[in-house]
Amino acid sequence: MASEVTRRRFLGTASTVVAAGAAVNAAAAEPDESGQAGAIKIVGVCCSPRKGKTTSTSLAVCLEAAREVDERIESELIELAGMKIDGSLAAGLPLEPGQQDDFPGLVPKLSDSKVAGIIIGTPVYFGNMTSLCKAFLDRCIVFRKDNLALANKVAGVLAVGGARNGGQELTIQSVQTALLCQEMIIVGDGRPTAHFGATVWNNGKGDVTDDEFGMATTRNLGRRVAELALRMSGGAGS
Question: Of 75, 69, 76, nearest to 230 (Cα)?
Fold first, then answer.
């Protein structure tokens, strides 16, 4: 019966999905005949419950900067808005009858060996990440079971707050803590801003790109993730 599903069985099944996805994509980032890395992908994960808003816009800028580093870099923006991701399932609890869960569909996207970098973006709610972001990170426990599919991928974090100093750095560090548990390689925004990550201010006027400093940290984060991801994949980087 579904109610008898144990934490071990639950995680074991999820790990099988992770391993299968990695095997299918094993050759994606192999070097070409010149010894250069093939195409790699940087994935942005938007953890805002509102689709297409300021966090999504900021991640799009971040990913654009990543693509500009090298023509071999591809990107994809995943918006979690509208998805059903139950963080309690990370404890091995079974789905209730009729319950929808969208996290399994994200597993092959994130564990793809072509993905060399992941950038998590979240709004700041009461000085921390959104509940959707926390649920997503909790469910990423499947990657820690047997196949550390996120290990050695480069990770960066972007946070959007309602004030210039609205908890962005605290939120970034909170997300980074979870990513460190995945054995990911954490980077902040690169020089000249060079701190914890992308810190964006939503001033409520509708266009987050008006935040000149925030956009600078956003572009620097995208560039920094891309440069190191390229190096880790065998490319020259910069």
Answer: 69
